[in-house]
Amino acid sequence: MTDQPAIVWFRDDLRVSDQPALKAAAESGLPLLCIYILDETSAGIRPLGGASRWWLHHSLARLGESLARMGGRLDILRGSALDVVPALAKASGAKAIFWTRRYGAAETAVDTALKSRLRSEGLKAASSNGQLLVEPWTVKTKTGGPYRVFTPFWRAVLAGSRPEAPTPAPKRLHAADWPKAVERLSVDQIGLLPSAPDWAGGLRSAWTPGEAGAQGRLADLLAAGLARYADDRDRPDIDATSRLSPHLRFGEISPRQIFAAVRHAQDSGEANPRGADKFLAELGWREFSYHLLHQQPDLATRNFQQRFDAFPWGEPDPDHLRRWRRGLTGYPVVDAGMRELWQTGTMHNRVRMITASFLIKHLMIDWRIGEQWFWDTLCDADPASNPASWQWVAGSGADAAPYFRIFNPILQGEKFDPEGAYVRKYIPELQEMPDKWIHKPWTAPPDVLKSARVKLGDTYPAPAVDHDLARRRALAAFEAISTAA
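-> structure tokens emitted (485 positions)
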């Protein structure tokens, strides 16, 4: 065996099974340098938020353990990939480098420049799809353009050939010697974890990062047969969602693995067909979000629909923004969602829509401010799904909810958390409020408030804004840009 290695560059694909870059490198017969680069300096690369950094630490640790069991090794570097990769290739005498593709504009620019440079220096540089079911540029309308509406997009994906079958992990790897001229770091040395204060206790209780944790979540989902998924996935008071999103975000499980497993369960009669279809459609929304990101690389900062550039946001009210972030708006389902986010690094999907709508349409705060907060506090802060979903709620995105669709937080709470179990879980100060008043405590009679030991404005805040007034204000603003258009 030659001493010249192949480099496997892990990015958002932190797993060993159905890992096309690792598979191709292992099949080359070369000794391997498996690396992860914490790149926070390349132009346009968006630094990870705090919750994502916590997840990344543990995901890298688990990946390192998996590679070690196979005879490999994970080495971590820090710096601009445009500098780090060529330096490592030169110092190690590498013959080839393998990676799975990324789809952000800055990431694509880095990868394109590196591929050109490495090939010019005689290296094999190979990329492959390990992150999506289908590449964004392969799904087009009949006129040859990109899809801008989800339903026909997903219908086109499903009408095509099934995604390639997932592949098993290599049975054995051979780790190459590390070149002494290149500094490598341990996962502890790159400083991803919070220290003072350590705010991650809730995240540790809620999650098991890593490939094994991802496979366990998928197994639990399939064991339940998706029987109640279609009916209960919108209920934050019921554990009916997959909780796979952060595992997908960091590539601890591939969409092909999920798709194949659910389809197999559906074909064999082990999964509820309606539940399986609904779940796969949610996987399809992730695909569609990357489709949109490919169309508009600045999806997190620019309105997909240009007419919203004229929307009269104004300066955000600092007190309103603070109350929203801390879960103190006075609307219990909104506050429960924001507290769940802060404590666990996630939020139920239905409540994400409610809280986003409240920020945008009740408080009249620009969706980009909310997107940035979610980016910092979500474990599953995805560069495509996060901005696409915020724009969907704002009405500025592709296939967006109309701006005049304004979620009523009282009715949403009563419909999807009818007994107030979700609210009580995250807002203990409302623990004793009767179900009738749990989603609108400011309307409860004084004797009910007293019995529940709730003092509005003291133990729990009064509403930051009046729903009806806020709704009229939002509609007037939308009408202004509609008229101008």
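The first strand starts at residue 6 and ends at 10.
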